[in-house]
Amino acid sequence: MELEKIEILDSEMPLKLLNLKLLEEFQNRADTLTKSEVTYLKNNLGELLGIVPIKPEKITDKNFTHPFERMVINPCNKRINCLEGLRYPPESIKHKLNYNRASLEGQSIFYAGAHGTLPVTVETKPQKGQLITISKWVLKENTTLNMAIICQDHEIALSNPEELYSCYQDYHAQLKRLQPNTRQIIERIYQLVIEAFTREVNPSIKQGYLFSALFANLFFFDPCNPVDAIYYPSVPNKGGAMNLAVKPDIIDSKFQMVEASEFVVVKNAEPGARIWHNFHTATCKQYDKHSLMLMWDDHIRPPDNPVNEIIIKNEIQFD
Question: Where are the domains of the chain?
Fold first, then answer.
């Protein structure tokens, strides 16, 4: 339903505001919620909100001039030889998946970053001695993506105005057209959404992602207007770069991998710095469309290059 057509009566406001206050309190202590509280939220978030305000944007390949980039730390320091290893987590390991920014426990979602390699490196933080693979993905030609854009905050919009400010202005213009009670509720809901997607999470307490994961799940599977992807600010990059979360079936049907590059991390970033030193070991620009096997072209490694010692010490395998 269009937000302009929603009318919230004065008599309905006390309960709606009470529900939102309850959600705010839950979100503030997301790290420490009990299992029963988490279950309650999973079962009742949509009802407590009452409105799913996200208005998806229709996105095509013309909207993005650069590929999205995804970094994978290679399991067991072995070369990834199949496209499946560069996509979303496979069905076989879903039971091992913890909460993430846009995914619940056991939920497989494809994550990538915009604006080049550095933002995804800052997100992933690979370590010296690890083998990593960075793949580039584009939306197929003549394909439309139903995308939710998380930008309904003035500060976030200004952190990346070229991409976000127009969308933020559209949101602000829409607010002005709403009935006063509806506007108040919508603004409170978006405050929850923004706080969830910009929350700094302790890496050792993944439940801190609970609310952004719950909102993402609500957007992905909204019965009226489900989204294919969510475009949201990168917290480690302070909103100056964006991340993309995409449902697996959408990756399979609407995206294609156009290039992958393999690296050995030879030096970590210095404290407070954003520079990693990597040795480029191979490039893949094509794969078998049936078997999904990647076709790697190895790069020359000079015998006296220090990377060879790192490869041996860390048992990196290219077979």
Answer: 3-57+144-249
